[in-house]
Specification:
This protein has 333 residues and is α/β, with parallel strands linked by helices. The protein is 29% helix and 28% strand.
């Protein structure tokens, strides 16, 4: 029997083997939770759980060595994978520090490079960004828009997978590594997005279907609120990875090769609808997956659509999208 059952260990665990009266000190490769006769290795770099039977006799050492070897092999494979992240900023001084701190903290141990394109911010956004070492920063003299900024980053990265991140996103887990692993294991998936949460932990239901007049305009009026739930698939309450029509642009991971294959974002959208447009291009050949097993926090204020200028940009982008796609939406089954 092993002492210390149902406890969590990081770095080192000491167990007492009552069969031979020995105390065994074991260096752990990452994190273990011992539950009954099972050792559960929480491999944060892979976002999966590997469970191993622990035989209660003299086999603990060999079982541990076997698991450790498997872990080291997986870790070596993971370390070869290059991941990039891109953020486009514009006057985000109030929120950018929290975003950067969270990303850098939760991407340690992987080959991750972060790029920022600043759209001529007039506040302290750039001053805050320049406090960080190792972030690649591109400064525009004018505001070129969301899609232009991300495409500029795309032209400068050398990675296997790329993460598009809004400056109002907060992560507190290894969601980037985990979702990259899903892409790595499934070549038919070109783009993946996790569950998006409000700061209070409630789910934020964002569009997962193609935009149309009913979803985008009519849904804003009380008799037609139900269209919003159809647009976001809110009533479906997905509990497992699911193929969707459209991914939110606030946070997703895409194969860098696929991103280049579809020529990135359409820069004719200054802001809004570029994520829906990108999704339609990607899903011509690849799946887009919503993975509710992982999450990020999104402080979604939509302040731009509360001003006349923001509403004008929104309407212009909507018409560009609808005309480009001939006012036609389709549902992937």
């Amino acid at each position: 029997m092993l002492d210390g059952l149902n406890n969590e260990y990081v770095g080192q665990m000491i167990i007492n083997d009552e069969n031979n009266g020995k105390e065994i000190s074991i260096e752990l490769p990452e994190k273990f939770i011992i539950k009954g006769n099972n050792a559960v290795a929480l491999e944060s770099d892979y976002g999966v759980q590997a469970t191993m039977e622990v035989l209660i006799r003299d086999s603990w050492d060999s079982q541990y060595q076997k698991l450790s070897l498997q872990y080291q092999m997986r870790r070596a494979k993971m370390s070869k994978r290059k991941v990039s992240g891109g953020i486009v900023t514009y006057n985000n001084g109030e929120i950018i520090r929290d975003c950067l701190d969270a990303i850098l903290k939760n991407t340690r141990g992987i080959d991750f490079k972060l790029y920022i394109f600043d759209n001529a911010s007039t506040d302290n956004t750039l001053a805050i960004i320049e406090e960080y070492f190792g972030i690649y920063v591109f400064k525009s003299k004018t505001n070129r828009g969301f899609g232009y900024g991300h495409n500029y980053i795309l032209n400068h990265i050398e990675s296997d997978y790329h993460t598009v991140i809004n400056p109002d996103i907060i992560i507190d887990n290894d969601v980037i590594t985990a979702l990259c692993t899903v892409l790595e294991r499934n070549s038919d998936i070109g783009m993946i997005t996790p569950k998006i949460l409000n700061p209070d932990g409630s789910e934020q239901f964002l569009p997962q279907r193609d935009p149309n007049i009913r979803f985008v305009i009519l849904s804003k009026f009380k008799p037609f609120y139900f269209y919003r739930k159809i647009y976001t698939c809110e009533n479906e309450r997905k509990s497992k990875p699911t193929v969707i029509d459209s991914s939110t642009g606030c946070f997703f991971i895409i194969s860098t090769e696929v991103f280049r294959e579809v020529n990135g974002f359409d820069e004719r959208y200054f802001m809004y609808f570029e994520d829906a447009d990108l999704s339609r291009k990607v899903r011509r050949k690849y799946k887009i997956v919503f993975h509710p097993g992982y999450y990020v926090y999104h402080e979604w204020k939509r302040e731009n659509t509360r001003s006349l200028k923001g509403i004008k940009i929104f309407m212009q982008s909507m018409m560009k999208y609808l005309m480009k796609w001939n006012f036609h939406s389709e549902r992937r089954e």
